[in-house]
Specification:
The complex is a heterodimer of chains A (about 110) and B (about 110). Chain A has about 110 residues and is mainly β. Chain A is built from no helices and eleven strands. Chain A has strands spanning about 5, 10-15, 20-25, 30-35, 45-50, 55, 65-70, 75-80, 85-95, 105, 110. In chain A, a hairpin with a 5-residue loop joins strand 7 and strand 8. Chain A is globular and about 35 Å long. Chain B is globular, with a radius of gyration of 13 Å. In chain B, strand 7 and strand 8 (about 70-75) form a beta hairpin. By secondary structure, chain B is mainly β. Chain B has strands at about 5, 10-15, 20-25, 35-40, 45-50, 55-60, 60-65, 70-75, 85-95, 100, 105-110. Classes of the chains: A mainly beta (about 110), B mainly beta (about 110). The interface between A and B is medium-sized, with 26 and 27 residues.
């Protein structure tokens, strides 16, 4: 039982490059989330998926796209990376809704030069 | 825009002391207030949460106190230990059931 896994752990991109962050959970959770964490700003929700087949924008969706591939997997894509997207990205899942515990992955540290 | 204001930003407490972190929130659609703990290089993990049909919840050395009229809730860590050194985040639900608004975090250091 691995919980929530994320790949890659680290990534360096040049401005304008694209990449996809992968996330998978093995807890049969319905809801999945992508956050970014910046110093002094806590966690900010980028996109979430309430259930398989649905995705919705969070607080800071600009510059990102997501795909809920199946119940287990939720990917985050940066189409044209910008230095402002330098951050630590966390994927999380919960049984359903925010009033259930969210389980977080180990994070991806992304640097955009 | 809805906010959760968390204080202090950083806190140093002697081993055995009481650590107190406070959060203030704006209107929420429903009442559910979790605290998460994060160690360096790791993702946050749920520490304790309260659904305020009660004003206080205790789990071991950790207690959440909730004041609905003041729209404030706080985390108390009794008998603080060096292993409690971490960053703590409070959160509150946004208007939908699927979004949490997070405080900016408190970096807690427990001195031996």
């Amino acid at each position: 039982n691995a919980g929530v896994t994320q790949t890659p752990k680290f990534q360096v991109l040049k401005t304008g490059q694209s990449m996809t962050l992968q996330c998978a959970q093995d807890m049969n959770h319905n809801s999945m989330y992508w956050y970014r964490q910046d110093p002094g700003m806590g966690l900010r929700l980028i996109y979430y998926s309430a259930s398989e087949g649905t995705t919705d924008k969070g607080e800071v969706p600009n510059g990102y796209n997501v795909s809920r591939l199946n119940k287990r997997e939720f990917s985050l894509r940066l189409e044209s990376a910008a230095p402002s997207q330098t951050s630590v990205y966390f994927c999380a899942s919960s049984r359903t809704g925010t009033s259930n515990e969210q389980f977080f992955g180990p994070g991806t540290r992304l640097t955009v030069l | 825009q809805q906010q959760v204001k968390q204080s202090p930003q950083s806190l140093i407490v002697q081993k055995g002391g009481i650590s107190i972190i406070n959060c203030a929130y704006e209107n929420t659609a429903f009442d559910y207030f979790p605290w998460y703990q994060q160690f360096p290089g790791k993702g946050p993990a749920l520490l304790i949460a309260i659904r305020p049909d009660v004003s206080e919840k205790k789990e071991g050395r950790f207690t959440i106190s909730f004041n609905k009229s003041a729209k404030q809730f706080s985390l108390h860590i009794m008998d603080s230990q060096p292993g409690d050194s971490a960053t703590y985040f409070c959160a509150a639900p946004r208007d939908s059931n699927y979004q949490l608004i997070w405080g900016a975090g408190t970096k807690l250091i427990i001195k031996p």
